Amino acid sequence: MSRTDAILKRLLGLHPKLIDLHLERIERLLEQLGRPQDRLPPVIHVAGTNGKGSTIAYLRAFLEASGKSAHVYTSPHLVRFNERIRLAGKLVSTQRLNQALEHVEMVNAGAPITYFEITTAAAFWLFSHIKADYLLLEVGMGGRYDTTNVVAEPLGTIIMPVDLDHQHFLGNTIAKIATEKAGILKRGSPAVIARQQDEGLEVIDRAARCLGVTPFVAGQDFDAYAQDGRLVYQDETGLLDLPSPTLMGAHQFENAGVAIAAVRHFDLPVDEAAIASGLRQVVWPARLSPVKDGPLRALLGDGSELWLDGGHNAHGTRALSQALATMNRARPAPLVLILGMMNTRNPADVLAPFSGMIERILTLTIPGEENAHRAEHIAAEARKSGFVASAEKSIKSALRAAARTPNARVLISGSLYLAGQVLHANGTPPD
To answer: Could you say which residues form the signal peptide (predicted)?
Structure first.
């Protein structure tokens, strides 16, 4: 076990629950640390069900193309915890990460606090000690009581599409979940709102106007769409004709559009050339990413494709299925899905958008995850939904089974935890 893993294991034992949405514990620890949340660079705070990380990736690419530096905080990580924290654009070094974790552990002195809370406190402590022009801050879950919601005056807030997810913690309707997401809105901070279902938009709009904030809303105040292989963005100040983003799928045009809207609405020092450059350079691993080489890719035939995506809820898999349908129109290929899921998700809900698209499903128990669905259970649920499905023992055995379908488009999906294990096993972890 590495030193980092040993520290994280100790921190995991400080609270009996992995998730306990509250702000008292993080506020207490931040107070003991000297209130680092008050010494951060200008913060852009991002909530939503899906698309948060992609939108942050676009914003980082735009800012860096403009010569600006950005701290970044996202979760979860894929392979190494370091991926959660970027300091002025670069992943935190293991030495610096360990120092920060051990410092907050010492200051906390064994008091009850969740894993996400104490590690977020370590991130804030790092962000407050290292210079950057901006901090791009992703909400962990919800918004109102999320650990990151301790920044009193963010430069701006963004709410990505709201859909059903984490209902046990956030509520079982779009309106209830939107209420939680809207909790990041702050008086005096402009807000950009991605395209929403009517029920969610009504809640978010009402919350914003109660704070004196006029939200800048996709589909009303701005729009972004694909046209002739380009991304077209339009708002009241004019139209931008831009290159398509390197991230795959129609949903990425929407995500990029939200990031561009934030650039303009928050008055960031980013011009059209920097936006175009950022769209060409943006990287966000395991979001419909091609796996082009490595030992896992080698298990498939030369005529096959291997794709990796961390989609794990119905909203995410709807976007994923639409992207794959577009791919299939451009180059038809039999689709083989390798699926592993956590037991907080219903396989039938995740699979429904793929109806009529998949040749067969190969299911996995995510290795080392005690809260993962068993491969046999996922396969049985898939068969109930009308799919051809069978359980496999490992990622390698699933890929060997997929190789029996010639010239297939093979997608590994269902969980970011599974995606991380694939990247690790393939020797291609994120930068």
So the answer is: none
Please count the helices (runs of H) and the strands (runs of E) in the chain. 15, 17
Euclidean distance between CA atoms 230 and 242, whole angstroms:
6
Q: Which distant-in-sequence residues (6+ apart) come within 8 Å of 228 by Cβ? A: none
| Pick from 180, 152, 170: nearest CA to 27 | 152
CA distance 151 to 23: 12
Q: What pLDDT is recorded for position 179?
A: 94
What does the block give as tokens for 92?
């935190």
**What is the Cα gyration radius of the chain?**
21
What architecture is domain 3-281?
3-Layer(aba) Sandwich (3.40)
Report the share of the chain in percent with pLDDT over 90: 88
Confidence of residue 22 (pLDDT cuts 50, 70, 90): confident
Per-residue pLDDT tens digits for 303-346: 999 999 988 777 888 889 999 999 999 999 999 999 999 998 89
**pLDDT per position as a tens digit, 138-195:** 999 889 999 999 999 999 999 999 987 767 777 789 999 999 999 999 999 999 999 9
Name the residue ranges covered by the structural domains of the chain: 3-281, 289-425
Query: Following DSSP, what letter does each residue of 72-130 receive, concatenated?
Result: EE----SS-GGGGEEETTEEPPHHHHHHHHHHHHHHHTT----HHHHHHHHHHHHHHHS
Indicate the CATH number of 289-425 among 3.40.570.10, 3.90.190.10, 3.40.1440.60, 3.90.190.20: 3.90.190.20
- Name the residue among 259, 256, 258, 331 with its Cα closest to residue 290: 331
Note whether 429 and 308 are within 8 A (CB).
no
pLDDT in tens, 324-334: 999 999 999 99
Task: Report how far residue 96's alpha carbon sits from residue 105's, in angstroms, rounded to the nearest whole number.
Answer: 14
User: At 338, phi and psi to the nearest 5?
Assistant: -105, 120
Reference 81, options 10, 1, 8; nearest CA is: 8
- 355 burial level (CB within 10 Å; 0-12, 13-18, 19+): exposed
Q: How far is CA 19 from CA 4, 168, 219, 313, 352, in A?
A: 21, 11, 34, 18, 28
**pLDDT grade for 401, boundaries at 50, 70 and 90:** very high
